[in-house]
Amino acid sequence: MTDLASIIDMAACPLTDDGFIASCRNQLDRDGVITIPDFIRPDVLAGLVAEAEAEKPNAFFTASTHNAYLTPQRDDLPPTHVFNRQITSSKGCITTDQVPKGSALHMIYDSADFRRFLAAVVGEDALFEYADPLSSINVHFADEGQELGWHFDNSSFAVTLLLQAPHAGGQFQYVRDLRDSDAGDMNYQGVSDVLDGQMAPTDLDIAPGTLVLFRGRNSMHRVTPTIGPLTRI
Fold this sequence. Notes:
By secondary structure, this protein is of the alpha+beta class. The protein has one domain (32-105, 130-227): Jelly Rolls (Sandwich), CATH 2.60.120. It has helices at 18-31, 42-55, 104-109, 112-122, 188-195; strands spanning 33-36, 60-66, 87-94, 139-141, 148-151, 158-161, 168-169, 172-175, 202-204, 211-214, 220-223, 226-227. The strands form four sheets. It has a four-stranded antiparallel β-sheet with strand order 5-11-8-9, with helices on one face.
């Protein structure tokens, strides 16, 4: 089995170091997001981009509309209400079964050290695989003009790894703690302000090879449209 240290830069991300774990956990609690640049070694990153490009012809590309809450529209509210306001997302995707079996992505995902690191940072006793076997590892493609529209996540956190950045666009933006889902506070006015450009989001600078942990359940976020011929992966 390939040593995880040959894939992950352990100097940038010492997975088993208690001090590093505590620092990441404190930052996530404070900011709702952490970025770990240079998480993947450059030669491995290049290989992952090549893998993704080879599978891209088999990706499922779609455009869909949704509201910011990723919930069905409500007939008891007018069509102009922010809850019924439709937003566009478009992308391509390959699922776990399409990622080559020897891929570094599988090795990272299957690593007990990596899973323990994530659990400690997000404050969980343990993390488990998705019940859906196709959802464990997804590779997303955003060609020119494609974007991820404004939304809140259904999950408590997400883990992403940027493999390739476009020439322009593809900017991750978010508004921290815009709602309180546990309290049932949907903050319709705040969401409307963001959609209307009346509230400025925060831009998150992410370079290829960066690992991102993001709490998106209450923080609305998007990825702006890709500009240029280089696909965001």
